[in-house]
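Q: I'm a student working through a structural biology exercise. My instructor gave each of us a protein and asked us to get a predicted structure, then write a short paragraph describing it. Mine is Mevalonate kinase. I'm not confident about reading structure output yet, so if you can add a plain explanation after the tokens, that would really help. Here is the sequence I was given:
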Amino acid sequence: MTVCEAPGKVYLFGEHAVVYGEPAVPAAIERRARVTAEPREDDHVRVTAEDLSLDGFTVEYAGGTGDRPDIDAPAPLVEAAMGYVDAAVRQARSAADAPDAGFDITVESEIPLGAGLGSSAAVVVAGIDAATRALGEPLDREELADRAYRAEFEVQEGQASRADTFCSTMGGAVRVEGDDCEAIDAPNLPFVIGFDGGAGDTGALVAGVRELREEYRFAADTVRAIGDIVRDGEELLAEAVPEADPSRELLEELGDLMDFNHGLLAALGVSARSLDAMVWAARDAGAHGAKLTGAGGGGCIVALDSDAETPTALSYTQGCEEAFRAELATEGVRVVEP
Ligand code: MEV
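A: Happy to help. First, here is the predicted structure for Mevalonate kinase. I'll explain a few features afterward.
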């Protein structure tokens, strides 16, 4: 039995624009998805999901991983969860050259599904790592990140960047621009997350931005402007002392860029009333800046604030179901003793 866990992430800057070749800077956070893989004698795959915004379910299927048995859980969530687990199993089988390998897989996640915190990337990264290790064919991190990206790309029908999967594999803050991915230094940023209890449909949101960008020049300009914000943010991060507490001035400058980034994402139509309400509650409470994180449409915002005011204000904001601090996860995917 092999157990691996991989972190979720927030986008400091650059979601959506990264799909069109602009840079993005996501940062891994200490909320993890844990996947246990146990090889089986037959070619069946049995998946037990303990917590993927679901009450828990178990599915078993044979041969082709496309079959879906009837189970008592909300279909769209099961489809979403199973799609990523299926894709991870396919990648692990291909990497280990074991097309008929069967597994008992358990997924336990502290990351809400589809909420902008990289739950699917974390499940895919931890799943491929656990399944390949269980077959005695561990992958190096570069190949793991690449295979995890291919799994997401397949499930999201070609609408995925390398940002989420690379960040979850490597941990820390990363910079992604097209196929170029690298770890970057970052100070200890005081992330506060607000979660509205909902989820966005990443595929539909990415498709919406694509259509807008094809139809309106302002949308193409907006995507480029997000890229400019990311470049400015990178310069600020490069001047900061890595893994030290950032100065107030740096937090204010980064926070301003986050505010601008949120405004541009809203112009692209991917914010939501609940996300705007949480962003404004954080700003009113004195956060240095706040923006939605991930695909949008619902889910999470990320704010920067070292004080207690922002989490408290968010917890009293209508539409906010949960508010919490998130530490930067300096370590990416890792093996855990079962
Ligand atoms: C989703 O977490 C982030 C998007 O930029 C899509 C992607 O990068 O694959 C919206």
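A: Here are two points you could use in your paragraph. Residues 163 and 176 are 6 Å apart (CA to CA). The mean pLDDT is 91. It's a good idea to check both against the output above yourself.
Q: Great, thank you!
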